[in-house]
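From the methods appendix. Each design record in this collection lists the tokenized structure first, followed by the designed amino acid sequence. Records were kept in a plain field format so they could be parsed without special tools. The example shown here is representative of the layout used throughout.

RECORD:
FOLD TOKENS (132 positions):
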């Protein structure tokens, strides 16, 4: 993957994780360009299969394409930032990312988006009016 493609992914994401929406400025580690569909599942390096992800979201997502909805335990696809709108699947409430759909609930759960430290950080970002 060349630097121009990495730059495109970073700019398209406005330098924030496309899953948990935390900005790069609040991460010590540089965000990663990740494959939405992993190479082992025949995903490619096209821009439509790439997303910007913080280390925590990327490590929790791994090569997963699906997870279990915590509400009903049904197998559910994970959020795809190239094909779906964040605001249709998630809502921010007092620092907590709430899944509005089975896709949102499953993704928030599998990626562990709502650990206490992440909730507190999002609250601080919102209070400083830095949330997108």
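DESIGN:
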């Amino acid at each position: 993957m060349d630097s121009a493609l990495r730059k495109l992914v970073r700019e398209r994401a406005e330098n924030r994780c496309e899953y948990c929406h935390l900005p790069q400025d609040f991460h010590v580690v540089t965000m990663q360009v990740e494959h939405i569909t992993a190479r082992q599942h025949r995903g490619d390096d096209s821009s439509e299969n790439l997303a910007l992800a913080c280390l925590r979201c990327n490590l929790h997502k791994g090569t997963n394409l699906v997870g279990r909805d915590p509400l009903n335990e049904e197998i559910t696809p994970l959020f795809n930032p190239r094909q779906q709108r964040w605001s249709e699947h998630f809502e921010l409430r007092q620092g907590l990312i709430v899944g509005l759909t089975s896709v949102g609930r499953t993704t928030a759960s599998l990626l562990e988006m709502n650990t206490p430290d992440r909730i507190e950080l999002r609250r601080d970002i919102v209070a400083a009016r830095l949330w997108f």
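APPENDIX NOTE: The radius of gyration is 14 Å.
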